[in-house]
Amino acid sequence: MTNALTNEQPGGPAPEVHGFFDRATNTISYVVREPMGPACAIVDPVLDFEAASGRVAHRSAGAVVDFVRREGLRVEWIIETHVHADHLSAAPWVKQQVGGRIAIGQRIDVVQDTFARIFNEGPEFRRDGSQFDHLFRDGERYRIGALEAMAWHTPGHTPACMTHVIGDAAFVGDTLFMPDGGSARADFPGGDARTLYRSMRRVLALPPDTRLFMCHDYGPGGREIRWQTSVAEQRAANIHVRDGVDEEAYVALREARDATLSMPALILPSLQVNMKAGVLPEPESNGTRYFKLPINAL
If 45 and its partner were Cys, which of 90, 149, 182, 215 is the partner (CB 3.0–4.6 Å)? Predict the structure, then answer.
């Protein structure tokens, strides 16, 4: 294992990256594949969920699965960059369709403990991350076929956020947005603006030409949706954390901004599912599954 405090970047070939945009949640899922080979990882697959009707579907994740099958790929990992609060994970369905190990950061236990209290989960709910097939440690090296990869703990948005550095590319989850979008909020339970600043600066210490792939984009100002940038572009132009913005200035900006934000529309169903590796609630005696909606808890 590498020293968790270093910014050593994996070597080896550069991955081929294919993004899939889910317009309903402004989420980008990825297929990250080895060049000239069949191995791949899927990052942050989305389960379609219509809150008004309570219906789920597999349109977004189905596009990813169709691509994997069409290209004849072998899925080795299904990676969650964090416990998402704005969409439900399709990881179990994707695994059922095309295989792969569902993985998340090791500090998922902190998130599970926090939200188990909010949702009044009973003792049968394990708070150790064992619902996932693998828990990445900070600095852990792993492989996707010929690709060398490394998992970094980059908390601040949530306690369990990870950035995955794969060859010359980094998948940052909600740690960073596109330069004109700035950064993710830090006011969820367990979030912290100061910690987020330090995580972002860790990512931005990668080589300038490192490709950075976002988990979300909202098209500020009506521009077309984008999800790829670079360390150099972020350091020059990110409206929140470009070079020259110090920690105190960022914390003041982020905390002021967060105080104006409403909770994401799907936060309550998303957290219940995503902290359990994407598994939906068990059916009750009538065969129907139900979400809990805690009142005045967030």
Answer: 90
Helix, strand, coil shares, percent, the chain, to 5: 25, 25, 50
Mean pLDDT, the chain, integer? 95
In three-state secondary structure terms, 37 is: coil
For 263-289, how does the pLDDT look when each residue is reduced to its tens digit (9 = 90+)? 999 999 999 999 999 999 999 999 999
Q: What is the mean pLDDT of residues 223-233?
A: 98
241, 202 contact by CB (below 8 A): no
Distance from C-alpha of 102 to C-alpha of 91, rounded to nearest angstrom: 7
List phi, psi (to 5°) of 297: -100, -20
Domains of the chain: 16-274 (3.60.15.10)
Model confidence pLDDT, tens digit, residues 54-93: 999 999 999 999 999 999 999 999 999 999 999 999 999 9
User: Which helix H or strand E contains 249, and what residues bound it?
Assistant: helix 247-258
| DSSP state letters, 222-240 | GPPP--EEEHHHHHHH-TT
